Recover the amino acids of this structure.
């Protein structure tokens, strides 16, 4: 008994003419918002606000960035902008998988100064280390010297 294997499983089915179901509903939603604005507001106001809404609905339906749908790119951008972006790294001593305080080495994401989550590498008391201009210059000088010594 032979079974036929689908060839194009990553291509969505065209349900509404040349549109997929997602594309159709994105355009339908944008059109509905513009129609409701048309019923309740003056024409110039509908044109001014309707153009960006139509562009957004069309980009949701048709735009792909690096082969990914615009909705996925938008979700990733919102997720990135609302997440913590402070990462601190402390290197473990050679031959050890744990730091002297018993914690594993690695990155620790922090959303607010003084916020301490399990596995974070802040000084005791939850204080965020402050980077002053002199500390930054010392660190830069130290890195420059180490790189010159390795050459």
């Amino acid at each position: 008994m032979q079974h036929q294997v689908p060839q194009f499983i990553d291509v969505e089915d065209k349900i509404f003419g040349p549109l997929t179901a997602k594309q159709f509903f994105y355009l339908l939603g944008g059109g509905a918002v513009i129609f409701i604005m048309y019923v309740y507001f003056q024409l110039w106001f509908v044109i001014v606000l309707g153009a960006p809404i139509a562009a957004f609905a069309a980009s949701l339906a048709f735009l792909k960035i690096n082969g990914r749908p615009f909705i996925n790119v938008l979700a990733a951008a919102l997720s990135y902008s609302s997440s913590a972006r402070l990462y601190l790294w402390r290197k473990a001593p050679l031959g050890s998988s744990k730091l002297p305080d018993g914690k594993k080495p690695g990155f620790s994401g922090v959303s607010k100064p003084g916020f301490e989550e399990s596995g974070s590498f802040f000084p005791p008391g939850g204080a965020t280390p402050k980077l002053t201009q002199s500390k930054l210059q010392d660190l830069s000088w130290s890195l420059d010297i180490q790189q010159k010594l390795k050459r």
